[in-house]
Every structure is written in structure tokens, then in C-alpha cells.
Amino acid sequence: MTPVLEARDLHRHFGGVRAVNGVSFQVGEGEILGVIGPNGSGKSTLFNCLLGQLVPSAGTVLLDGQDVTGMAPAVLNRRGVSRTFQLLQVFPQLSARENLILAGQEHVGSRLARLFGRPDAGLTAAANRMLELFQLTHIADLAAGGLSYGQQKLLDAAMAFMAGPRLVLLDEPAGGVNLTLLGSFRERLRAMNTEAGATFVVIEHNMDFVMSLCTRVICIAEGKVIADGAPEAVRNNADVIEAYLGH
Amino acid sequence: MVGLLAQVLVSGLAIGAIYALIATGFSLLWQGSQTVNFAQGDFVVVPAFVMLGVRGLGLPLWVGVLAALVVSALVLGLLFKRVLVDPMLKHGSLQLAIATMALSIVIQNGLLDVAGGEAFPFPGINGGIDWGQIFLDWQSLIVLAVAVAAVTALNLFLGRTRTGRAIQASAQNPQVAVLLGIDVARMILITFLINAALVTLAALLISPIYLVKFNNGIGIGLSAFSAAIVGGFNQVRGAVVGGLVLGVTETFAATFGPDQWRDAVPMLLLILFVLFRPEGILGRREERRV
């Protein structure tokens, strides 16, 4: 079966620095792939190459078998790739519900419908379902900028699912989320993986979160994949331990 | 005395509503593209001259209004963005602001060269409502009604339509808006076209009161800029409130004090707000990353 996402010998250099240095991996349909690695290992650069925010120096990115290397993020979004952000990126003056509608509205209707169609683009029901799923119904009409950090993080994640994506790239979803919320957040993501059939790639530092959420994990160090396999196997891999602990 | 107060209040609100229109455009351009347009006052004068020019050809006023709308959209919207804003913004907001000051001088001297230095009368509406002690002129009432309707329509457009929401998103977080598939460049262009429509409407409403003169833009621009600061530069609602506050204060000062106070009030309010409440009446404090 064709993988949803495939990176083939991906490189990204900044002058003499090889931030991503020959990374190859595949993500299958419905898989939750975790990407771990120490700070400065090249995870974020890899993510940006996959999302079209950086053009790779060499190598190929394939989405459903089609070459999308260097394709603009907006085009990738229309092809079913969405993402969450390490730093909060909601629209602060819009309500939580409006943020969700906005995240889906460019995927429905013609240009004409954008001008004369329903103001909510027919997405209010979907937004309400998402609010319910992420337990945000009580703050639906509040301005997103006034929500707590954890609530904004949940909203950011919920927005990633509004367009019914095939592939969601989650950038440190657990960062800054308190322990009480973290468990419920993980369950929400699992539910989206099962119910919506979305495939995930997750960059995360919280090892417990990665190990309990992901079905497979790759570890990157100095721009290269040093381990790829089941979460427990990667956690116990000698190269991974050395990369984290240092020499 | 009650009659005079009511008349001054309505006149002040009418002038303030026009300032609100112009300041709203100011605020939209800032939010949408970090453009501080110091030629905004002159942008009001250009369509006024177009309307007068078309009338000079013996055509009715509504033809002049249509012609002014087209000229504004093409020159003050599209051309302004493509020729001045886009290239200058790459160098920074400050450089762009200075370039708009230069544009203001170019427009004023261009108009002086073409139309001369005299003040041209503009067709208005005579008469009013006479309630014994209180007389309210139609001109002010209609200006107030039209300006309030325009600002309300704009707010509904921004808040209740898909395009309006996309414009807001593009202004609040353009990087993420792009990732959501929003055509941010198109949204910014729409804000420039909205501004062009707003200054044309303002020209139609203010010209019967201030007449049409090549350098009217200096005072109008300064008042609108002050209104945007007083109300809150990063809020469209703030621009509306600031415009009304400024219009009423200015008119009361000019009526009950020396006439020169009319010009001093916007500057005084501007200084007070910059010193003691820089975010304005309804604005939000903003962090800027450097």
C-alpha cells in the first residue's frame, strides 16, 4: 500500500550546518508516528521541510505517492495536510468557534459562495462537534486570546481537524499542557485517529506522552534517523540513550 | 442655549462620523498591512476633485460619485498598494510611513497645479428640522445617518461574512492564515479597496461642509489619524469611537472657544492619549517582537 507520507533522503543545509542530513521514512495510513530527538537534532527543520515552509536542499517528499517537495503550505493544506504549532497560533480576537470555522472554510464552497454563501460556510455544526470532542463547548463564544494556555492548545489541535485532513503534523502538542489536561488531550487525539482515520506525525519531548500515543517512533540525532521502530524498542535503543545522555 | 447645544452636538457627531470613516480606513490599512498612511487626508480630497470635475462636464452628481469610486479603487487602492506599499514595506513600516508623507506632498502639489489654490463649493443639502428652539440641519443629519450606516455595514461584513473573517485572520496572524489556505495577499488588497471606498464616501459627505481645496487633506488627515489613536489604532470599533469623540470635542471647542481651537483639539487629544493611554479608548496593548 502507498504510504500517506514518505521522506526520501531529505537534506537541508544552512551554510555548513547539515540540519537534516539524509532522512528517509514512511508513514502508513492511520499510523501515529512519533519523532523524538535531543534539542538541535533537526526535528523542527525536518517538519518545516515536510510542510513546505522550508525547501529541502536535496531529497523528495511524497504525499500519497505524489511529489510535493517544496510545495507551498497553503497548497499542501488544500491537499489534506494540516498542522498544529509549538507556540500558540490561534486568532486571538475571534471566538473559539470562529477559529474553528475559519480553519475549515477555505475547503468548502466556490469563490462565489465565499462572497454570497452562508457566513458560517455550513461549518457551525462541525465546529460544535469539535468543541464537544475537545471539551471546549463552554468557551465556544469567548475570544481565543483570552483562553488559558491549555485551552488554546486544545483549540489549536481541534482546528487542525476541521478540514477533515488526511495527515496532521503535531508540533510538541503536549508542551506546556498540565498533567490533568494531558491525559484527556491524548484520548482526544486517539479518538480523532480512530474516528476520523487521520494519520499523525508528532514531534514531542514528553517521552511518556509519545510512548503512550504513538504506534511507531523514530529518533533523530545530528540530522539523521538513528532508530526506527516500536516505542519501547526505540526508548531502550542504546544509540538513542547515548544521543540523549551525550558522550 | 439648549437649541445651540443640540445643534453643535449633531454637527459634531456628523463631522465625527466622517472622521470615523476615514480613521476606520486608516486602522484597516494598519491592521491588514502595517501601513500608516499619512496621505489618508489627501485620499479624501482626490475623489472630491473627481466628483467636481465630472460635474463640471455637466453630468449629474451620481455619475461623479461612480467615477470617483472607480478612480479611488484603481489609483488609491490598487496602484497605491502595488507601486508604493508593496515595494516600500519590504524596507519597513517606518520607511513606508515616510513614503506616504511624500505622497501627501505630491498629491497636494499636483492638485494645486491642476485645480489652483481656491476653495470650490460642493453641492450639499439645504434646510432642516425646526422645533422651535432647536434647529437641526438636514446636511448634518444625513451625513450622520450615512456614515453610521456605512460603518455598521463594514462591521457586519468583517464580522459576519467568510471574507470578513478571512480579512480579520489575515490581519491577526498572516503566517497561520496562509497555512489555513487563506489567500492573504487578496485579503490585503480587499482592505485597500475598502479604504478607497471609505475615503470616497467621506469625500462626498465632508466636501459640502469644508468645500474642496487642494490642501484640505492636511487637517482631515490629522484629525482622522488622531481619531484612530484616541479610539485605539488596532481596533475598527476604536476608530469609530475616536472619530465621534474627536468630532464632538472639536466642534464644541470651535463653537464656544476661539476658532483656532478646532485645529488644536486633535493635537491636544493626540498628545494626551499618547502620554497617558497609548492603546486608546478601545485598543489593546500589543507586544511586538524584534
CATH topology of chain A: Rossmann fold
Task: Label the CATH architecture of chain A.
Answer: 3-Layer(aba) Sandwich
CATH top level class name of chain A: Alpha Beta
Largest sheet of chain B: 2 strands, antiparallel
- H/E order of the elements of chain B? HHHHEEHHHHHHH
Number of helical regions of chain A:
10
Q: Roughly what percent helix of chain B?
A: over 70%
Shape of chain A: globular
Q: Taking Cα atoms only, what radius of gyration of chain A do you get, to the nearest Å? A: 18 Å
Beta fraction of chain A? 15-25%
Q: The CATH topology of chain B, please?
A: ABC transporter involved in vitamin B12 uptake, BtuC
Oligomerization status of the protein chains: heterodimer
The Rg value of chain B, from CA coordinates, equals 19 Å
Q: Flag low-confidence runs of chain B.
A: none
* Mean pLDDT across residues of chain A: 88
Q: How far apart lie the N and C ends of chain A?
A: 40 Å
Q: Please tally the β strands of chain A and state the result.
A: 10
Describe this structure in words.
The complex is a heterodimer of chains A (247) and B (290). In chain A, the strands form two sheets. Chain A has a six-stranded mixed beta sheet with strand order 6-7-8-3-9-10, with helices on both faces. With 247 residues, chain A is α/β, with parallel strands linked by helices. The model of chain A has no long low-confidence stretch (mean pLDDT 88). In chain A, α3 (96-105) packs across α5 and α3 (96-105) packs parallel to α6 (149-160). Chain A contains ten helices and ten strands. Helices cover 36% and strands 24% of the residues of chain A. Chain B has a single domain (2-119, 132-276), classed as ABC transporter involved in vitamin B12 uptake, BtuC (Orthogonal Bundle), CATH 1.10.3470. Chain B contains eleven helices and two strands; from the N terminus they run ααααββααααααα. The radius of gyration of chain B is 19 Å and the shape is globular. Chains A and B meet through α2, α3 and α4 of A and α6 and α7 of B.
